[in-house]
Every structure is written in structure tokens, then in C-alpha cells.
Amino acid sequence: MRRVLVLALAAGLVFTTGAVALQAADPGAAYASVLADPIRTDADRERDTARHTAETLAFAQVKPGQKIADMIIGGGYFTRAFSAAVGPEGHVTAWQPDEFVGFQASYGEAVTAADTLANVDGVTSPIGAPAFPAGLDLIFTAQNYHDLHLKPFAADTATKVNAAAFAALKPGGLY
């Protein structure tokens, strides 16, 4: 019993030390060039502190060259950050549900604007059939997942979106 306890404590110490080291890293420094990228707007930069953009990119393990889907892009805030972060070797799919474009014109304008970025495809499709390409490293949404459960949409909308997301991820991809 004592040996099991010692092994458990040793394992806990190893894992805790790694977590502390990860928390100690400064995501602001790691993603400073992303936050300053000219494709991002002044309004984006004004929101970075409140939205914890650098910390979010670090948590999502965003790296140059990745393939990312920004799910339900809203105004495209994270789409622009992802575009800058993955760089010219990476790719971002900026997906907005048709239903959102139908009830707020600016959401359609955000897709059109995203589509002008060299490494971004702005796409729309019905909410229950997201247009995700295969082999994604990350599927990300911010402040929108709850929308999949709203009454205007079918009860199985979240189930369909989740299935499409997991089918689009490469092995080890994050959602």
C-alpha cells in the first residue's frame, strides 16, 4: 500500500510540475506578432485583453502551418487571429451557418471579408451540416456553442455538428 502511495505522489509531482511550467510561459510574447498582424483590425486589438486572445491561442495550441475551422465566426474576430497565427502555410475555414447569415446581414459580410484573406475560405452551409474540410488540426468556437441548442434549430443540431466536427479532425486534432 505504501509503495502505491509513493508512486501516486511521485506521478502527481511530475504532472503538476509540467502544468506549472506551461502556465508560467508568457502567451503574450509567444503570440505578439499574431496580435500585431496587419490583417487584424484596431477594433480587434482593443478587444484582445478582454478576450484573452493570446491565452486562447496558446490554450488551443495554435501553430504555424495548421488547418483550422473557425466554427460560427460571428464578426470574424478569431478568424483573423487564426489566419495570422497559421501563416501562409496554414489554412482557416471560416464557417458561418446559413441561418445566422439570414437573420443578421453583418454575419454574411464577415464571411465575405474572411474569404478575402489569402489563407482563409469563408463558407456557409445549413447549421446542421457544417462545411468542414477533412484533416483539421483544430475546430474552434467562441461564445457560440450554446447556439446549437436554441429552439429555432432541430433538437439534434448539436449532435450533427459534433459528428461533422469529429469526422473532420485529423487524429489528435482538437475540438
Structure commentary:
- The protein is an alpha/beta fold and 175 residues long.
- It has a single domain, classed as Rossmann fold (3-Layer(aba) Sandwich), CATH 3.40.50.150.
- Helices cover 50% and strands 17% of the residues.
- It is built from nine helices and five strands.
- The chain has a five-stranded parallel β-sheet.
- The longest helix has 23 residues.
- It is globular and about 45 Å long.
State the gist of this model:
The protein has helices at 2-24, 27-30, 32-36, 42-51, 53-59, 77-86, 98-103, 105-115, 157-168; strands spanning 67-71, 91-97, 120-125, 136-140, 169-174. With 175 residues, the protein is of the alpha/beta class.
Tell me the strand percentage band: 15-25%
Which topology does CATH recognise? Rossmann fold
Report the total helices.
Answer: 9
Number of strands: 5
CATH fourth-tier homologous superfamily: Vaccinia Virus protein VP39
What distinguishing features does this structure have?
175 residues, alpha/beta, Rossmann fold, 5 strands, globular
Describe how the helices and strands are arranged:
Layout: H1 2-24, H2 27-30, H3 32-36, H4 42-51, H5 53-59, E1 67-71, H6 77-86, E2 91-97, H7 98-103, H8 105-115, E3 120-125, E4 136-140, H9 157-168, E5 169-174
Parallel strand pairs: 1-2, 1-4, 2-3, 4-5
